[in-house]
Amino acid sequence: MDGYPAGSLDHNVPFLVVSGLRTAPTKPLITDPVLREQSILVRSEIPPVNTREAKAILRYIEETDVTGLPWHSRDSSRRYKFKIRTIGREFLLPPRRARLPDNFEAPLSPPILHSPFSPLSPGSTLYPDGLIDTHWLQKHQDLIPSVCLTFYNLTSDSTLATLHDNQLKTDINAVKNAVAQSGYKTRLVVVILSDQSPTSVSQFQERLENIRRSTGLDPKTSLFVLPTQRTEKELEGAVDSVLTAVFDQAIEYYRDLSRHARKKKSRGIAPQPTVPPTSGTSHTLSLQGWNVRYDFKAAIFAEFRQEMDVALRSYEQAYETLLGPDILETIPSWSPRFNDARFLSDVTAIRALKCLLWTGQSTAAVRRWQTHRDRIFDLVDRRGHGTQNYGWRAWEARWSTVMANLIEKVEYPELQPSSILPFRPPEKNLSAERLQPWEYLHHQGYWYRAAARHLSERRRLAHSISEEDRKPPDTSLPSKGSKTYGYDTYMCPQPYEELPSTGSGVNHAQMIFDHLVLARNEFEKRHQTRTSLELALECCKELERMHEWTRIMDILAPLWRNMSFRKEGWWDAMEALSWTLRNAAVEVGQSDIIVAIDWELLNRGFSRRPGWHYDITKSLDGLDMEEQPVVSFTDEHVASFLQATFVFKKEEGKAGQSCPAQLSITSNSFPDAAPVVLDLIQVEFDGSLRTIHLKNQANNTQTPSTSRLRVTKVNLVEAEASDDNDSDDESETSSESTSTILLEGVDDLTLLPGQTRVFEIDVPLREPGDAKASSVQVSVAPESFTLKYSMKLRENNLAGLWHSQSFRKKITRMNPHKIKVLPRPPKMEVKFVNMLEQYYASESVGLELQLLNEEDADAITKLDVVLFGQDVPGYKVLVDDGAERSSPGGIEESKLDGISVGTIPSSKSVKATIVINPVDRPTTFDVLVKARYHLASDPGTPIIQQATYHLNIVNPFESSYDLSPRLHSEWPDYFNPEDIQDLSGGDETVRRPRGIAQKWSLATRYASFAHEDVTILDLDVSILSTQGSVSCKISKSQVIDKDGLVISPKTIEEAHFELIAQKFDLDDKSQATANLAFTIKWRRLTSPKDVVNAVTLPLPQFYVTSSEPRVLAGVSYYSPSNRPSSSSSSSSSSSSSSSPDTSSSSPLLFLDITIENPSSHFLTFGLTMEPSDEFAFSGAKTTTLNVLPVARRAVTYRLLPLVRGAWIRPTLVVRDKYFQKVLKIVPTATAAEGMKSDRDGVLVWVPPEDGESGSEGENEDEGEGMIGKEEDDDDDGSTQSETEA
After folding, report:
1. CA-based nearest residue to 211, from 176, 180, 237
2. Closest Cα partner for 515 from 439, 459, 571, 595?
């Protein structure tokens, strides 16, 4: 839209003038000297407000200017939109009425004066029959504000308040009167700034009310008070409120102007000018012309109000009237008013397009764009200068550019580069119609490309201008009439300026290039690659016209290397781009691109260029090169005329043998092209095969009549190729040379056009594995340069061909450039010997390995050992000759590579031992042993033999545990200060436990799961950790002999330990736990005496102290042969009862019931003993027992059993009288010691008489204790209370 005059297409928003906040001088609103002379001055005598808050307000107001924002209504962050101009304390308004001409004779009646922008004023450019121009638009956009927003400061000094208030009232009234006398309806809004806070400004209410009454301003719309003592955010919110109110005033201002325009139109008469036109055939503007003017004004004012639908209707009405039969059809094409009317129609159509795009009617906008183009085409073709000239194409290019500019201004989200659609979907009301592709709104790149095409046509038509019309008119000769009448010069230069016969005219190439660049950028943003490449080529053709060779290289060189046309087979586009790039490369001396393009253009898939040599050796002829360039490129960047294939005759081969293969190179160059002499052919392989070099040895045996297929046998020999690599050391720099073994052959490498050369070779196979030919590189080395072209051999799943001179046959397998090299069959035996039946955790595992060489020659051998599994331990490998290697542990694997075994003579063996570190759990490992060796007679062929052993490691022992309570002899005493006070002084290292101690018996039953007898050396229980501020001590109840205990497989043994747990503090009543571990030290019977293996079995977590009361039961026996003193029944006796007496006399049983109260509460328990048929008892049948806090009491019952050799059940019930809970009675002895418990209570064993069979039950119970834990014992052994049934 830059081709149209300034202001004609600007977006209209309310024009706001802000006065009183800027102290620096500003540019005046009116710059025209004629208007400035007649302008009206509006001035304020009070200086501007210059405070920190005023500057912040000014900055915020300037930020709200929407002049440069997109043209859409989607921004709802602010309700108001302004074009803002900040001034000092004065501004100029244009004159309301124009002056009379200087030579005007005053009529009898006073003349009617009109606006200087009206066609009724003689001084206007529109006088007497013009429609409207940009001066009227600029008047409302830049000269006449809708609102004048004036800022004043309210002083808080009481001594100066009256004086300043009077000055303020006088100044406001003066500005108000000046605006009113100007004749314009500009609103005046006054904002008074106060340095008070919003809460304290009320003290100036009387002064503000006085100012309001004196100035006559409405406090809701025209007078605002703004306290500035607030945060910046609050201040911005207050300014937002003021601007919102001001916006309403501005909208009302433009609504009044619209009413005035409609009122004039409704009169239905054409006003008369101030002075009637008298020159020539001039006539005044017709009524239809005035209607166009009024409708255009109404549309502009609706735009100012942001009512785009109303504006669109007015624009359409003005447009239809303008292009109707009464205006444009009546204006002669030679008149300047014809082009003025065309200009107005363009502006009206563009503004209508903007309204459609604003409201989201994109498809309607495209149709409207096409409609205007068609109507103007018809108008110019019928009544203008025709459309077959450069002027019409210039307008079409401008019209396409306008649409692109509008799309950029509107910023539709659907047309952003991030969107996947190249066009915007149509409106909902048009979605059911069958739309043409060009009726969709495409992105701006589409329109820029259309404009570039029109500009190309403009250049073509400009070059068709006759030589006579290109000469400027001679002003010295009398006028013979215009020679340029046949050319449309609407908004474009005359023919002699468009393309003069001498000198430079319009730079068409630059204009086309600029539009193509804009279009290309938009297509690139949306990843439309093909169109982008096409536009890049068109850009470079224009640059070629301007001889901008460097810019061509910058654009085309990257595209040429990665051109999608090459992969898609668009040969015409490739050829055009390549020739353009080559011309530029020749001009700038880019030798590598010249050679690469010439190499590619030898392909006969392109069209042949007449007169071109098609000889790669002549590519750099005529270029001055300082040194010989080396050009390297691949088939990924060039569509070469050469094609290469590599075929193995067999799919498989064994290491140490050779496999026949053929390398085929085909030339697809032009028939008359020069032969290509290759200097070197290099074949690279992936895998163990060596690189092949075929060197040229000319024999001049080929002629143009030579067969198109030539097969030659080439012998390959091994040769060394050295590459010098400089390696830096810390002290000195030395040059090291590394040698590489290659396979070399020689042949005549001349390649004729259309010929296929086949080189048959035998490829030695060395190492086993998959191998394939990966690439073929050819080199051409004329005198001026060196070319290296590499072709990858890709997997295409196509069958290969095996050539001979007389026939060819198909190789029926996919990807014949691949081969599988099988390993040479190994004759070395790798086996594990002297293996044990089972390996166990906690012992070192030794695996003996034997390597037996059954080859016919000595073998130089290395050993690889890999251990697979979870949490692999470390290990070491010992070889017979003393070599030792160690490997650390790993998460999933641990490996040792390259263990030197040395030379194993033929038919001899070597042993090695793998020692695996002990593991602490059952697991499985896989041991992989790989022997890598080569024979002394054939060092180039590696041979591999391997063996795998599955190692299963199991736990040699399993165990079960039982923790049962015992009665501890010690109990804290309140009356002993040493038992209560902590004498350690807080030192944790010497702190001694002072709390309650509880004793437990830990029974461990362990069984051997080994496959052989093992020796138990020691048993131990260790404390891993405790929780709950408790001290634990463990002691053994039995000791194993120093020679150990031999245990057989599936045998169960039992061990007992005593555990004493004591709290550190007596006041600590929380429960405590202990984590224990059971350790078994053992060794095999066949192991040396110094080998000790230790298996640690973790125990479950046990509760070792309890804050709940518990009831413990113990039993002792009395008989005439056993004095009572030996089995005391008092509470102070040992917790372990004496063994049951088996004498013939009736035994007397003492049942000791001990109640422990570790809590801090006074507890009362009721004890009830029920009579039984199995025994008689002595003691209280029902009694109450009071237990103090942190105390314990004991009660003893004497039982006389009435049965022998049986279990009796004392029916004793212990009840907590406060909670009415029945406490469980826990025995403190094992079944072997005469006590056990079940669900119903405690059972006591009565020994049988001599000679009676009463041991069956006892042995049965003892057997139960050996197998596992009793059903009725709790896991933690603590006392639990249960409700009485």
Report:
1. 176
2. 459
Collapsing DSSP to helix, strand or coil, 931 comes out as strand
Amino acid 32 reads D
Tokens linked to 218:
């409405």
Q: For the ranges 370-374, 489-493, 1096-1100, which has the lowest average pLDDT?
A: 1096-1100
Residues 392/394/397/401 CA torsion (nearest 10 deg): -120
22-39: pLDDT as tens digits: 877 777 778 778 788 888
Distances from the Cα of 635 to the Cα of 34, 566, 787, 794, angstroms: 73, 10, 13, 11
3-class secondary structure, 22: coil
Q: Tell me the C-alpha distance between 1151 and 1208, whole Å.
A: 12
Which residues contact residue 429 at a Cβ distance below 8 angstroms, ignoring those fewer than 6 apart? none
Angle at 188 between CA 184 and CA 193, to 5 degrees: 160
Asked if 91 and 48 count as a contact pair (C-beta separation under 8 A), the reply is: no
* Across 627-635, average pLDDT: 91
93's enclosing H/E stretch is: strand 90-93
Contact 818, 771 (CB under 8 A): yes
CB atoms within 10 A of CB 294: 23
d(CA 821, CA 689): 10
Q: What is the pLDDT of residues 534-561, one digit of tens each?
A: 999 999 999 999 999 999 999 999 989 8
Q: Omega before 1124 cis (within 30°)?
A: no
- 1101 Cβ contact list (under 8 Å, min separation 6): 1073, 1074, 1075
Query: pLDDT tens, 649-659?
Result: 999 988 878 89
Cα 163 from Cα 171, distance rounded (Å)? 12
Q: Cα-Cα-Cα-Cα dihedral of 7, 8, 13, 15, to 10°?
A: 40
Q: Which residue has the higher pLDDT, 205 or 317?
A: 317
Of the candidates 448, 578, 581, the residue with the CA atom closest to the CA atom of residue 512: 448
Joined together, the tokens standing for residue 938 give: 């054939």
Q: What is the model's pLDDT at position 360?
A: 92
* Sole residue written with tokens 């009256």: 162
d(C-alpha 73, C-alpha 79), whole Å: 10
Place of tokens 């009320």: 202
Q: CA–CA separation, 794 vs 791, rounded Å? A: 9
Q: Return the beta strands (E) in 1085-1161 as ranges.
A: 1093-1098, 1102-1105, 1110-1118, 1148-1157
- How many other CB atoms are found less than 10 A from the CB of residue 103? 5
Closest alpha carbon to 748 in 740, 738, 739, 759: 759
What Å distances lie between residue 10 and 2, 83, 132, 874, 1151, CA to CA? 11, 11, 16, 82, 113
pTM of the shown model: 0.65
What's the order of all strands across the beta sheet hosting 1030-1036? 957-966, 997-1008, 1052-1063, 1030-1036
**DSSP classification of residue 1126:** G
Q: 1249 burial class (0-12, 13-18, 19+ CB within 10 angstroms)? A: middle
Taking only the tens place, the pLDDT of each residue in 1060-1083 is 888 888 778 788 899 889 998 888
Q: How many residues are listed for the chain in this entry?
A: 1285
What integer pLDDT is reported at residue 768 of this predicted model?
84
Nearest to 395 by CA among 491, 498, 510, 507: 491
Distance CA 832, CA 913 (A): 9
CA distances from 1194 to 473, 773, 1111 (A): 141, 96, 9
Model confidence pLDDT, tens digit, residues 221-273? 999 999 998 999 999 999 999 999 999 999 999 999 999 999 999 999 989 88
Question: SS3 sequence, 388-428?
Answer: CCHHHHHHHHHHHHHHHHHHHHHCCHHHCCCCCCCEECCCH
Beta-strand pair 1014-1027/733-747:
unpaired
CA separation for the pair 954, 565 (Å, rounded): 68
Q: Where are the beta strands (DSSP E) in 938-1011?
A: 938-954, 957-966, 997-1008
In angstroms, rounded to a whole number, what is the distance separating the alpha carbons of residues 1128 and 1122?
Answer: 11
Report the alpha-carbon distance of residue 1063 to residue 1047 in Å, rounded: 39
